[in-house]
C-alpha cells in the first residue's frame, strides 16, 4: 500500500476506564462521609430544641413559685404592719340615763399614743354644732377606755380649717375649760356620734379608725377637716381591762 506524503501516524489511546461497580462504591463512600456529619447535626439541633421545650415548663413554674413567695412575703409584711392597729376599735354607746359613752379599745399588748377623737352631731346645726376633736395622751394595752359625755367640751369661738396635731399638744385638764365659747354636749344636740379616731402605734406609724369601721394609714393631719373647732376632754377617764387581748386574738 502506498503512503500519502506527509501523512502522520496518530496513535490513539483509549483512556482506561474504571468498572461501573468501582465508581458506584466510591460515590457511596463519598456520600457516606458527607451524610454522616449531616445526620449528627440534625440530631443535635433536634436535641437542643427538645431541651429548650423541656426547660420552658420548669422555668415558668419557677417564676410562678417566686412570684407566689413574693406575694406571700408582701401580705405578711402588710399584716405585720397592721398587727397592732387592727386591734384598736372605737364606738359610742349610752348608759342607763341616756348619757353618751365614747369607747376606744386597745386589744394589743402595747399602748397606743396621741389618740384623737372627732365628734359630730347626727342632726347638725351649722351655727352651734360644728365638728370638733379632742386628744387623749394614750390608751394602755389590753384596755377599754371610756369617755363620758360630761367630760367633753368644744369651743365654738376657735374655728380651724384642719385639725393639726400640734394644736393638741397639751396635758389633759383636771377641770372643764371655762369661757364664753366652751360648750358641753347639751340637750340641743342629743344625738352624737363618734367619728374618726386617729392614733400612733408602737412603731410610730399613724393610723385612723374611720367612723364606719375602716382602718387606714394616716399621713400628717387628722382626718376631721373643714368647719371644725377644738375640743377638750377633762377629768379621770374610765379604764376596763380586756380579757381577750394579745397577738393571737
SSE blueprint:
Blueprint: H1 20-81, E1 88-94, E2 100-106, E3 112-121, E4 131-139, E5 143-148, E6 152-162, E7 182-183, E8 192-200, E9 206-209, E10 215-217, E11 225-233, E12 238-241
Question: How does this structure look, described?
Answer:
The chain is of the alpha+beta class and 249 residues long. It is 25% helix and 33% strand. It contains 1 helix and 12 strands, in the order H-E-E-E-E-E-E-E-E-E-E-E-E. The protein has an 8-stranded mixed sheet, with no helix packed on it. It has a 4-stranded antiparallel sheet with strand order 1-2-5-12, with no helix packed on it. A hairpin with a 5-residue loop joins strand 1 and strand 2. The radius of gyration is 46 Å and the shape is elongated. The model has no long low-confidence stretch (mean pLDDT 75).
Runs in which pLDDT lies below 50 for 5 or more consecutive residues are: none
The succession of helices and strands, N to C, reads: HEEEEEEEEEEEE
Q: Which of globular, elongated, flat, extended, rod-shaped describes the shape? A: elongated
The number of helical segments is 1
Given helix and strand content, the structural type is: alpha+beta
Question: What is the number of beta strands?
Answer: 12
Distance between the termini: 137 Å
Side-by-side strand order of the widest sheet: 7-6-11-4-3-8-9-10
Whole-number mean pLDDT: 75
Condensed summary:
This protein is an alpha+beta fold and about 250 residues long. About 25% of the residues lie in helices and about 35% in strands. The protein has one helix at about 20-80; strands at about 90-95, 100-105, 110-120, 130-140, 145-150, 150-160, 180-185, 190-200, 205-210, 215, 225-235, 240.
Amino acid at each position: 500500500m502506498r503512503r500519502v506524503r506527509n501523512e502522520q501516524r496518530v496513535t490513539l489511546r483509549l483512556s482506561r476506564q474504571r468498572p461501573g461497580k468501582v465508581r458506584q462504591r466510591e460515590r457511596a463512600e463519598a456520600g457516606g462521609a458527607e451524610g454522616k456529619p449531616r445526620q449528627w447535626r440534625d440530631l443535635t439541633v433536634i436535641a437542643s430544641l427538645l431541651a429548650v421545650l423541656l426547660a420552658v415548663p420548669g422555668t415558668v413554674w419557677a417564676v410562678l413559685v417566686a412570684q407566689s413567695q413574693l406575694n406571700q412575703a408582701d401580705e405578711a409584711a402588710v399584716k405585720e404592719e397592721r398587727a397592732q392597729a387592727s386591734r384598736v376599735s372605737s364606738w359610742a354607746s349610752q348608759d342607763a340615763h341616756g348619757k353618751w359613752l365614747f369607747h376606744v379599745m386597745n386589744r394589743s399588748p402595747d399602748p397606743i399614743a396621741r389618740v384623737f377623737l372627732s365628734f359630730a352631731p347626727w342632726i347638725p346645726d351649722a351655727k352651734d354644732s360644728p365638728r370638733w376633736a379632742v386628744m387623749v395622751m394614750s390608751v394602755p394595752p389590753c384596755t377599754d377606755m371610756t369617755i363620758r359625755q360630761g367630760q367633753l367640751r368644744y369651743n365654738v369661738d376657735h374655728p380651724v380649717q384642719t385639725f393639726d396635731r400640734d394644736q393638741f399638744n397639751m396635758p389633759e385638764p383636771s377641770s372643764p375649760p371655762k369661757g364664753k365659747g366652751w360648750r358641753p354636749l347639751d340637750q340641743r344636740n342629743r344625738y352624737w356620734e363618734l367619728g374618726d379616731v386617729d392614733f400612733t402605734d408602737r412603731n410610730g406609724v399613724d393610723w385612723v379608725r374611720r367612723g364606719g369601721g375602716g382602718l387606714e394609714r394616716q399621713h400628717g393631719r387628722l382626718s376631721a377637716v373643714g368647719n371644725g373647732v377644738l375640743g377638750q376632754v377633762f377629768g379621770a377617764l374610765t379604764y376596763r381591762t380586756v380579757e381577750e387581748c394579745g397577738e393571737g386574738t
